[in-house]
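Lab meeting, item 3. Inverse folding demo.
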């Protein structure tokens, strides 16, 4: 793990360099160096066994909010994604470097033109109830995600698969999707066009398998069950005490169970950051993903158990582009330019976050250059551009804010979000003469409000789902359940889809810059800052790690004496 506040750009650059170097078709054969490493690992395992002897292997970590669902095909938010990343597994899984490595599939073949993948599933991959994970489980699961009746927000994730988009829009049957069970343990996937990051897509929760008999026994409620959920990862959900905690236990049938040290992992759902910190400092919990912003300076100075980790993530406000006054581009731009982002990161977040100026965060190297730096700032400076903002608002017909209704800003319960909303409320009042009402909602209600378009301005964040620029673009195409702006653009969609199948990185980067130009020139959203990931974890917890996209993995974690 990375200790304290380090250079986000440098860390991500190193991680992404590692990612670019680590991709492979199948596990490489062991060589002499790797045999040496194996001996070292064996010694480390013996040491770990001694350190963990007679120590209860139970870990409690706080994520804050109640998950929307633990159905891999429908989950979209951070808490659910972190739970599913520890309880389920796809064809590939995320390595510590962020690259895809063998998961349920122990190896794979890729056709010469990159359009066909054959995955060979582990015969010892099993569900938590002992039944085998089969190729048919993946066929059923992917067809289910793409079935229009499922209304999966992340269905677009599978669009590179042959006929996937047509199936999702109801033009063809899901049986025509390019996924086939050759036999019980062999899965063939045909792509519409080659996609060079397809193995990374297969690490994400939407591609994880679900069991047909489990789902069909309770189609609407199985992913919300409080009595346990069958899954195929290192842990499975034993009990979900809604709005309180999710209790997970080791899956004895996991193919790599012998290397999973924890017996129990409980995710608490304390959404008051100060309460979570008090629980951590008193020893009631071992770690927390939520940290009060006001306590960050103290924790940085005093605690060896506080970390600021890198995170490919954008914190932004989304405008409802379909309703007045934000159906007016000049209004959207005026509100965007009237925000002092530098003040927010220096006086509110205080966690090494940096002012945002585009869709894609800083730190991602693609096509041989830093994507954000090459893309420019779209006239969005770190400090507020008050004169230009006032001029734009006057040109839109609202001089000094006159004629504008009270603007409602929706945000979900968390101290950080409230403080940022209050800061922006004051900025818009001072710089534009606009009255702003803050509307606080619980997380699931807030998400529903955004999805239904019942808002004017809404707080939201987007963390990368995999280490590639596309994860910040495909979410805005028509049909995506994650596009809350109520705006789509055919030229943007065509460019994004073209970039998906462009094998040359430099050319693909050029296309994505063109797509970002379309989106940001309309000020569809207002980027606020590029986030870091403040974390608390007790020193007796070892082996935990977060991926470059800030997802927590505990398959290697253990509690030492």
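The presenter then showed the designed sequence:
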């Amino acid at each position: 793990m990375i200790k304290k506040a380090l250079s986000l750009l440098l860390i991500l650059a190193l991680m992404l360099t590692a990612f670019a170097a680590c991709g492979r078709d199948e596990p490489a054969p062991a060589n002499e160096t790797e045999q040496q490493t194996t001996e070292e690992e064996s010694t480390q395992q013996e040491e770990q066994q001694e350190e963990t002897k007679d120590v209860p292997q139970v870990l409690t970590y706080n994520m804050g909010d109640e998950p929307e669902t633990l159905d891999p095909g429908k989950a979209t938010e951070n808490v659910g994604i972190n739970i599913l990343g520890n309880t389920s597994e796809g064809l590939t899984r995320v390595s510590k470097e962020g690259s895809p490595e063998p998961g349920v599939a122990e190896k794979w073949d890729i056709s010469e033109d990159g359009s066909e993948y054959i995955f060979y599933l582990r015969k010892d991959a099993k569900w938590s109830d002992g039944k085998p994970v089969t190729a048919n489980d993946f066929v059923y699961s992917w067809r289910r995600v793409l079935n229009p009746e499922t209304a999966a927000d992340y269905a677009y994730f599978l669009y590179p698969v042959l006929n996937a988009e047509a199936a999702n829009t109801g033009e063809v049957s899901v049986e025509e999707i390019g996924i086939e069970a050759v036999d019980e343990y062999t899965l063939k996937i045909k792509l519409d066009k080659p996609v060079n990051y397809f193995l990374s897509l297969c690490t994400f929760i939407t591609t994880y398998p679900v069991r047909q008999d489990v789902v069909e026994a309770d189609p609407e409620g199985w992913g919300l069950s409080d009595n346990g959920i069958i899954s195929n990862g290192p842990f499975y959900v034993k009990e979900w005490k809604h709005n309180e905690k999710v209790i997970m236990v080791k899956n004895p049938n996991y193919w790599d169970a012998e290397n999973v040290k924890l017996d129990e992992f409980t995710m608490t759902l304390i959404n008051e950051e100060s309460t979570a910190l008090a629980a951590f400092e008193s020893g009631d919990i071992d770690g927390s993903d939520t940290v009060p912003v006001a306590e960050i300076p103290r924790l940085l100075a005093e605690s060896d158990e506080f970390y600021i980790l890198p995170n490919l993530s954008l914190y932004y406000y989304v405008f409802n582009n379909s309703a007045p006054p934000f159906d007016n581009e000049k209004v959207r731009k005026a509100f965007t330019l009237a925000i002092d982002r530098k003040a927010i990161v220096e006086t509110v977040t205080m966690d090494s976050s940096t002012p945002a100026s585009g869709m894609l965060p800083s730190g991602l190297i693609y096509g041989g250059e830093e994507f954000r730096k090459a893309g420019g700032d779209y006239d969005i400076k770190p400090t507020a551009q008050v004169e230009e903002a006032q001029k734009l608002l006057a040109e839109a017909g609202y001089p000094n804010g006159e004629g504008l209704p009270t603007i409602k800003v929706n945000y979900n319960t968390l101290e950080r979000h409230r403080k940022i909303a209050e800061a922006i409320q004051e900025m818009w009042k001072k710089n534009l003469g606009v009255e702003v009402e803050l509307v606080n909602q619980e997380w699931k209600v807030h998400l529903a409000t955004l999805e239904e378009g019942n808002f004017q301005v809404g707080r939201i964040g987007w963390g990368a789902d995999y280490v590639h620029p596309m994860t910040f673009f495909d979410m805005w195409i028509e049909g995506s359940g994650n596009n809350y702006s109520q705006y789509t653009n055919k030229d943007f969609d065509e460019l994004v889809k073209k970039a998906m199948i462009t094998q040359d990185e430099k050319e693909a980067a050029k296309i994505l810059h063109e797509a970002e130009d379309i989106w940001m020139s309309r000020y569809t959203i207002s980027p606020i800052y590029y986030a870091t990931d403040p974390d608390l974890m007790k020193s007796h917890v070892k082996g935990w790690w977060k991926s470059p996209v800030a997802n927590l993995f505990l398959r290697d974690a253990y509690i030492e004496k």
